[in-house]
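hey so i finally got around to running the thing on that chain from the lab meeting. sorry it took forever, my laptop kept dying and i had to restart like 3 times. anyway pasting the input first so we r on the same page abt which one it is
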Amino acid sequence: MSETISPRRFHEFDWRVVRNDACAHFRTGSFAAGVAFVDAIGRLADATDHHPDVDLRSEGVTVRLRTESGTLGEREVALAQQISAAARELDVPVDPTSLQIVQIAIDAMVIPDVMPFWRAVLGYRKVDDEDLIDPLFQGPPMWFQQMDVPRPQRNRIHIDVYVPHDQAEARVAAAIAAGGHMVSDENAPGWWTLADAEGSEVDVAPWPDRD
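ok and heres what got predicted. didnt touch it at all, straight out
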C-alpha cells in the first residue's frame, strides 16, 4: 500500500491534488501535439504498470492519477514527475488553473429509496452506499448525502465544485461577481456555499487543502 504523502509533493512541479486524484492539465495547442504527448504518457505508464486516466482534447490533455485505495504515494509522485518531464521535452506547458472536479450531490432521507432511480436513469454504476459514477467517466459523479430532517425551503440537489487550493477563492469571487451570493462561509477554507440569483446552491471546495 502507498504511504500517505502531502499534496505539496505534487504542487512542487505544478500538479494539484483535487479530491483524491493527482491532476495536471497540459496545454498542447493542437490535437496532433496532444496525440504525441499521450503516446509518451502511454509508454511511461506501461513501463511502470500504473495507468492514469487521460483526457485528450483538441487544445490540451488532462491527466489524473488515482489509486483504488484513494491514497496517493511515492509511486504516483514518481510517475507524475516523469509525465511532466515528457511534457517539457515536447515543449508542452502545464496549466494548473484549468483543473476541477464537478460532483452532483443529492440530499436524501432514505438513500436506498432514491439511489436506484438515479442509477437507472443515468446508466451509472454503484460504487458504494453513497456514490454513483459514470462507467465511461464522461459525466460527473453523484454523491448522496444523508439527511436527518426534511428541508422543504431549500433545494435538495446541489453541485460540488472541487478546485485546487490556490484557485478556490478566485472561483468564489468570480461566481459572486457573476450575480451569485454567499450562503455560508463558516466552513471556509474547507468549502464555501454559494447560490445563484434564484437560490440554487453550489459548494466550492479546495479538497484537500495546502497540507
